[in-house]
Amino acid sequence: MKLVLITIGMLALGFAGIAIKIWAKKDGQFAGTCASQSPVLNKEGEPCGFCGKLPENCENK
What we know:
The protein is an all-alpha fold.
């Protein structure tokens, strides 16, 4: 039972941290990159669904 409570507490702390980060960021956006830059997520080299850039045209490499 103690392990379950510790696990739930750690998960709650993680969710709270992510929520605070989103709340503190301008427009609630994570800083960083498009998913199209990841070769694991974009095996065919398709453009980003959000910004429309191709992986080779992204500035955050």
